[in-house]
């Protein structure tokens, strides 16, 4: 039986991939990033097949309306009878396309662990307390400027079983729709200056340091609400060729 | 502007993203179902599939209301069943299985977006019900992975292989 992987093994593998990709601009992670062990059997080995079709269905996208969100969906601290434990935060930002145009009226969904790093999910069985006043689920629609805003609790770091002593930095999962199915994005927002960044294969699957920094929110004192919450700002830029193609076709 | 990088959906999206009867876009149409498999041929129990399609006339307008909420409790109600949203979202079950009940797409295919633990960037594929030029441009053994098997009238099986000998064709829209 092979001995369990240590953090040093993972660190070495991350460094090797980063060195091999040094100087390359890559906006997204490779799907076959071996230090993230779950990726090994789940990435296609054949190259993706390019499809350039101005009529492609993927250049349109699903639509969501006010009936798809509830009033308290954007305030994760008010979804239960009591107050959740932890550091209350507000997270705000804009959803933009690659040309910097706001993505309006689109659904933003978030999910996260509670302040002690536990998800209310049966398969998350690590011994941190569940918080009966926190589900960690939120959603909202972007406004006319592409803005989204959530009030929540700063999530805790948590262990996972990628290797021995593996800990994920605190993060909030985001799911965002654009105006085209090709702009679809599922990602994670991290918090500035987290000491766990160098050890995490999921964050480090993004090999370009500048791209990796785009996953980290900024503390914004002007967003902090007196006697209430600390503010973090994080803008999201959606990839995808849809808008450009449509303009070229007209 | 430089895009925000993708990250894995992780294993714990289950209480946040799935929609009650999220694969039931319409009644009385077609059923498409299948499994998601990894490179060892094992089922993937923590994948999330999204579907986007035209209605039978070929329109991609869609309607809002996939995630319709109760105004009193905020609880998810799901579709009203009146408007055709064109959008489905299904988490695979413990056996890697999923099912979609929908109307036949007027443009001949259903678009699929695959998320999973271990998948750092989602994957796109298509379920083709009628041939087209793109499908015809693929080598037959690859193109076959985009065509469902009609098990009986109106019931189609479409398995997704993330890796391996039967690896599904995944698409790059540039």
Automatic annotation (TrEMBL), chain A:
<dbReference type="GO" id="GO:0018578">
    <property type="term" value="F:protocatechuate 3,4-dioxygenase activity"/>
</dbReference>
<dbReference type="InterPro" id="IPR050770">
    <property type="entry name" value="Intradiol_RC_Dioxygenase"/>
</dbReference>
<keyword id="KW-0560">Oxidoreductase</keyword>
<keyword id="KW-0223">Dioxygenase</keyword>
<dbReference type="InterPro" id="IPR000627">
    <property type="entry name" value="Intradiol_dOase_C"/>
</dbReference>
<comment type="similarity">
    <text>Belongs to the intradiol ring-cleavage dioxygenase family.</text>
</comment>
<protein>
    <submittedName>
        <fullName>Protocatechuate 3,4-dioxygenase beta subunit</fullName>
        <ecNumber>1.13.11.3</ecNumber>
    </submittedName>
</protein>
<dbReference type="InterPro" id="IPR015889">
    <property type="entry name" value="Intradiol_dOase_core"/>
</dbReference>
<dbReference type="Pfam" id="PF12391">
    <property type="entry name" value="PCDO_beta_N"/>
</dbReference>
<feature type="domain" description="Intradiol ring-cleavage dioxygenases">
    <location>
        <begin position="91"/>
        <end position="119"/>
    </location>
</feature>
<dbReference type="Pfam" id="PF00775">
    <property type="entry name" value="Dioxygenase_C"/>
</dbReference>
<dbReference type="InterPro" id="IPR012785">
    <property type="entry name" value="Protocat_dOase_b"/>
</dbReference>
<dbReference type="InterPro" id="IPR024756">
    <property type="entry name" value="PCDO_beta_N"/>
</dbReference>
Automatic annotation (TrEMBL), chain B:
<dbReference type="Pfam" id="PF00775">
    <property type="entry name" value="Dioxygenase_C"/>
</dbReference>
<dbReference type="InterPro" id="IPR015889">
    <property type="entry name" value="Intradiol_dOase_core"/>
</dbReference>
<feature type="domain" description="Intradiol ring-cleavage dioxygenases">
    <location>
        <begin position="29"/>
        <end position="107"/>
    </location>
</feature>
<dbReference type="InterPro" id="IPR012786">
    <property type="entry name" value="Protocat_dOase_a"/>
</dbReference>
<comment type="similarity">
    <text>Belongs to the intradiol ring-cleavage dioxygenase family.</text>
</comment>
<keyword id="KW-0560">Oxidoreductase</keyword>
<keyword id="KW-0223">Dioxygenase</keyword>
<dbReference type="InterPro" id="IPR050770">
    <property type="entry name" value="Intradiol_RC_Dioxygenase"/>
</dbReference>
<protein>
    <submittedName>
        <fullName>Protocatechuate 3,4-dioxygenase alpha subunit</fullName>
        <ecNumber>1.13.11.3</ecNumber>
    </submittedName>
</protein>
<dbReference type="InterPro" id="IPR000627">
    <property type="entry name" value="Intradiol_dOase_C"/>
</dbReference>
<dbReference type="GO" id="GO:0018578">
    <property type="term" value="F:protocatechuate 3,4-dioxygenase activity"/>
</dbReference>
